[in-house]
Each structure stands twice: as structure tokens, then as C-alpha cells.
Amino acid sequence: MASLRSERGTTVIELSLVAGLLVVILGGVLSVYESGMRVEKEAEVRGVALEDMRFAMARVTKDMRQAISISASSTTSRLEMQTLVNGANHRVVYELVGGELRRGAAAGTSAPSTTTAILKRVVNDKPFCYDPPDCTDLAPEPGLDMIRLQVHSKPASNTARKLEMATDISLRNNPPVR
User: Fold this and answer.
1) Averaged over 92-103, what is the pLDDT?
2) CA distance 82 to 63
3) In angstroms, rounded to a whole number, what is the distance separating the alpha carbons of residues 52 and 60?
4) Cα–Cα distance between 137 and 120 in angstroms, integer?
5) I need a labelling partner for 12 at 20 to 30 A (CA). Which of 28, 73, 90, 117 fits?
6) Residue 132 preceded by cis peptide, ω within 30
7) Does residue 1 belong to any structural domain of this protein?
8) Is position 23 within any domain?
9) pLDDT tens for each residue of 21-41
10) Are 150 and 166 in contact (CB under 8 A)?
11) How buried is 108 (Cβ within 10 angstroms: 0-12 exposed, 13-18 middle, 19+ buried)?
């Protein structure tokens, strides 16, 4: 009769130990995977926000470079101008309202009847600067040749940090302030 010691096999203790190690290893792998997914989502949200900011900056820049005149009633949160849109004279207004940078345009000199949000989740309250780099003037003054557009935006994600973008825009037509 064969001895029980000669039979090879695994004990319940060995199986429990291996199962515990597998659970720890699997937990670590899943933790790394979940962390990577979270970082990828944040990068995607940030990328979308940056793309939205670039679009808004390009739209404002295009209108400002074609400006014929800048309204003296413009403020640090509202920019009003006469500009060329597709070669025709238009009155264009950019205004920060409720965290949205909005654009309105109307042919000729009439005021725009509607505005469209070109950038949402704006967190700074003074996107227009008429004397860069100091930015102390509250309105445009005669001889204005450059306007700084500075936008701070909060991406849609709760954990993403605020994004900042600024550009100095040279006014090509040396428009008068009226």
C-alpha cells in the first residue's frame, strides 16, 4: 500500500495563497487601466476646449484685422466695430454675457438683432484689452493699432484646470475710434 506522502498535489493553503496573489495582481492591473482611461478622458476634454478657444480667437482676429472703425463705446467685455465681412461693410459686436463670448453681425451700420455663442465657459470677465501689455485702458482711445484678446476658459470636465489663451491683434486698416 502506497504511503500518502508519496502522492503529489496541492493543499488548500497553497490554492488560497495563489488565489490571493492573483487577486492582488489583477487589482493592480485594473487600477492602472482605470487611471489611464481617466487621463485619456481628461486629455480629450482639454483638446476639445482648446479647439473651441482657437476657433473663437480666429473668428475675432479675422473681424478685427478687417475693422474699418472701432466704437468708442467698446469696453473690456464688449467690442463693437465696423468691419468688412466678405467685402461688405458690417457692424460686428463681440460681448461676454453669462460666461459666453457672443458674436453678432448686421449688414451696414444697424445693430445686430441676434448673437451667437462662439465660446462657452469663459471665466475671465475682461477679454478685450486696448493698450497691451499694460491693459489699464477701459475703452479704446484714438490711435489704437492693437487689441489684445485674452480668454480663460474652463473645460467641461470638473477636474480639468482652467485654460488660458491670448493674442495681440494688429489692426491692419488703422481704424479710427468713433
Assistant:
1) 96
2) 9
3) 13
4) 25
5) 28
6) no
7) no
8) yes
9) 999 999 999 999 999 998 898
10) yes
11) exposed
